[in-house]
Amino acid sequence: MVIFEQLNDINLTDDYIKHQYEPILPKKDEWPVVKLSKSRKEFIQQVVESSVGNIKGLTGNQLQALKEELEITLFKERMRIKQNSWAVDPDDEQEFWAEVKAALLALDSDQQIEDEKKKQEYFEVLTRITRRYAEEIASNFKHSHYKMTKRFVSFGFSRLLNTSRVKGFKSIFSNQYRLQDKIQIIGETDQIRELASKGTIVMVPTHFSNLDSILIGWTISTLGLPPFIYGAGLNLFNIQIFAYFMNALGAYKVDRRKKNQVYLETLKTYSREAIQFGCHSLFFPGGTRSRSGNIESKVKLGLLSTAIEAQRANYQKGDTEFGKVFIVPVAINYHFVLEAPSLIKEHLNFTGQERYYSESDEFSTSYKISKFLVKFFTKGSDISVSIGKAMDILGNYVDTDGNSKDAHGRSIDCKDYFMVDGKVNVDLQREEEYSKKLGKRIVEEFHKINRVFSSHLVAFTAFRLLKKQNSKLDLFSLLRLPEEDLFLPYDTFKEACGLVLARIQQLREEGAVHMAPHMNAGLEEIIQHGLQNVGMYHAKRPLKKNEAGNIVTEDISLLYYYHNRLDGYELEKII
Amino acid sequence: MDMNWKKSSENKPIGVIGIGSFGTAISNLLAEKNNVLVYARDEAVVEAINKTHMVKNRKLASSIRATTDPKLICDSCNVMFPMIPSSAFREVMVRFAPYLHPYHFLIHGTKGLSLNLPEGKDLGNIKKIQRKNICTMSEVIMEETVVERIGCLAGPNLAKELLENQPGATVIASRYNEVIREGQQLLRSDNFQVYGNSDIIGVELSGVLKNIIAIASGALSGLGLGDNAKGLLISRGMVELVYLGKAMGGSTKSFLGLAGVGDLVTTCNSTLSRNYTLGFRLAKGEKLTDVVADMEEVAEGVNTVKLIKLFLESTDLRAPITENLYKVLFEDLKVEAALQYLMKFPIYTDIDFFD
Questions:
Q1: CA angle, A434 as apex, A302 and B172 as ends, to 5°?
Q2: Are residues A90 and A120 in the same domain?
Q3: Which segments constitute the Phospholipid/glycerol acyltransferase domain (chain A) (predicted)?
Q4: DSSP run (H or E) holding A555
Q5: B179, B230, B265, B347: which could join B174 in a potential S-S bond, CB 3.0 to 4.6 Å?
Q6: Which of B198, B216, B251 finishes a domain?
Q7: Quick one: angle between helices B200-222 and B274-283, nearest 10?
Q8: CATH number of the domain that B287 lies in?
């Protein structure tokens, strides 16, 4: 335990300086998110109109196409209600869709009315569905809740922190340790603060744990930024404690079960209109939590494309306040991901397939989460949040004034990306390509701002060595080997760690990755630190040193999960 | 030089960068419907175009104007066609970069590759050439400029026939439909069909890789071999092209299109092709350096063979035609010996790239 404490002190770092950040928009009335919540009704109306307009465009304003779209929507919704209903679903759901069904049937069988009139009627039905979706999606941001939550998170948790670290009776009032010691925010913090008052920020973090949402919410408020709105999975609203946090932090709801065109269009419109409104936004571009433990190598383009559309729309309107959209990648690093066991299991079971999201155990009740949070804050497991350089919607870096720069430092006028013959025009195919390009840039940046921890190093090295030991087996056979049969002599392991570390250091020199300060210690210390921390609260440890001094695993799938964090750097060529 | 072009936003001229034989042919095609402004580095060439409408004995439409000023052409034109040999392509893009903006469309017509090594590295001290070190021209444009809406022209476009206004067709490939539409609208005429393809890398590679087979085909003819041999070469060449092209990021479909099969068959049978001619003369016993020195414009295939050979060394791929052609070009292997080797190469499956 003594060693444990000492090792943790290595984390309180040299290159990380704890800042006290002043709020950048001190008056709450100035926050776009507050303005938005005040005009919630008008905003929803706008979203409805805009979505209906888009669907009109998608169906070519054709009666038949519109009818089919509505019928498909109805069919999919009825299937969803039957097969996959949640506590959070409203009570009148059956009823509403029964009405839609009746309306569609009546229209279909009505031979009397003329086509134009009929089309109007279909649009009526469409509008009702869209309005229902928009109401569901819309956030319930309340400033009083926001303040409460903010206080709860920083005050409550720092109590927990101090109770465990500072011994003695007075510990509960001690301010020796703050949340900022536990969760280090590093990277381009000043830039994001600058840009938040010059344009609209779209923050895109990596996603490993359900904890990320709260963590990012805390980060945003610690940096003195106004609240961001973000799309959170509707499933999280099943759990009360999360629902409270989410609403307080300006979350709007994303229901991954609803895959019909009308819903997706409404969701995208909501996001786009909010960005145009000047609300700083947050997407997890990976869509869901990384199941494999890999840093996202592909991102979902749906919501990302709304950032591009909003940017173009702002240019169409002329230069508005908060007119430029800035994309800010963020990488979150953990030694320990609570959900790792179920995530990796899911990943291995359904590799490559998307399934309905089934709620896993760890976060299923408020009690379990609270237990985890207490554990997390009372024991040592550090987290870092790396804020990346801001980019424009094509992935060019921007300077502190928000000007886009090319690779040679020349200024770029972003508007030109949407121009043809001197005018901004709408070309969805073009914007789709821009989204792909932006997605690739975000993935690149994730890898660059990713911060290597000791636990990543040991997990990666150990798994690669085990794989090499069993080079004739494919991945799945390897994962099925009994753990008792797997061990690595310490010296072999240490040597390999040294090689991987050297390569990581080289990559850092090249600007391809970052390293946590504890990685500057001696190799022996780093390994020890890594072994202590890798997946530290799992019932079965992914990696440890046994009494014989060998490196062993109690759960090879978990080891694989933590190993994956360093996938994508071509480190496997070393071992 | 009519300066009004620069000001009016309507009817902006179309730019052509580089005025070799293909650039000349494209300029004339474009000039049927548009004002055309040509960029050339050489003052004398520009003066000749503006005064006599001639460039190296080729006739240019009289409405075509020329300039040596990159800024002027970039400011005047929204759409430009770079038609420069691959060896000079990057250098020209670097020179143009300060004046290019994201609103520009660039549609290039260069069927070659460009080497891009990290700073401080050259072919002497680098261990492996990876895909990222070998760029198609659209990749060069992406690296050196802020232009995003890029297209390429490829297909059987023998400049001499285009200049004679014979019937033909081309492919415009771009990730952006608007670029394809723009190119079609600019180039399509009664005698010239323009197809579109969204796989720009595949189309570029088709044009690039077919030059290797064209040299080999010329060599077969130079040896006096018959049509059976040529049929063999073209079909095996096609397989090699598909494999290499896929490994470098193109899609199989593109290699079966006009820019792939279409261009391959054309170049492998045409004495108008520089690459074919080069192979033919080598087989007749001439030295590579002599043939190259003697040609008016570069045969891109020579550089392509060199780069692809280097790329192959870092992969598990085998490309017997390319490997042997490399030996013929740079290691003094006799064409006859290379042919012998190919006949013995142990591949017996006809087609297996559709699996």
A1: 125
A2: yes
A3: 201-335
A4: none
A5: B179
A6: B198
A7: 30
A8: 1.10.1040.10
CB within 8 Å of A426: residues ≥ 6 apart: A312, A316
The two three-digit tokens of residue B204, written as one number:
């570029």
Q: Are residues A459 and A443 in the same domain?
A: no
pTM value is 0.88
Contact B178 A412 (CB under 8 A): no
Q: What is the pLDDT of residues A420-430, one digit of tens each?
A: 999 999 999 99
Separation between Cα atoms, residue A189 and residue A18, nearest integer Å: 11
Q: How many domains does chain A have?
A: 3
Domain assignment present for residue B124? The answer is yes
Residue A368 in domain: yes
CA–chain centroid gap for A387, Å, is 13
Residues from chain B that touch A410, judged by Cβ atoms under 8 A, are 97-98, 146
- Cα–Cα distance between A55 and B217 in angstroms, integer? 55
Which helix (DSSP H) or strand (DSSP E) does residue A362 occupy? none
If asked whether residues B115 and B243 sit together in one domain, one would say no
Largest CA distance in chain B: 65
Q: Which of B183, B198, B213 is the last residue of a domain?
A: B198
Chain B residue whose CA is closest to A417: B102
Which chain A residues are within 8 Å of B78, Cβ to Cβ?
A: 420-421
Separation CA A387–CA A222 (nearest Å)? 13
A570 and chain B: CB distance < 8 Å anywhere? no
Residues A363 and A506 in one domain: no
CA A35 to chain centre: 25
Residue B77: both structure tokens together: 């034109």
- ipTM, two decimals, is 0.90
Give the H or E element holding residue A517.
Answer: none
Instruction: Report CB contact under 8 Å: A416, B176.
Output: no
Mean pLDDT of A355-380: 57
Question: Quick check: A421 contacting B, CB < 8 Å?
Answer: yes
| pLDDT 10s digits, B90-106 | 999 999 999 999 999 99
More confident call, B331 vs A146: B331
Q: Is B7 a catalytic residue?
A: no
Range of the domain at A404: 185-450
Binding residues of B, as ranges, are 18-23, 41, 111, 155, 159, 210, 263, 273-275, 298, 300
The domain of B271 spans 202-344
CB crowding B331-350: b at 16 or more within 10 Å, else e: eeeebeebbeebeeeeeeee
**Residue where a domain stops, chosen among A450, A484, A511:** A450
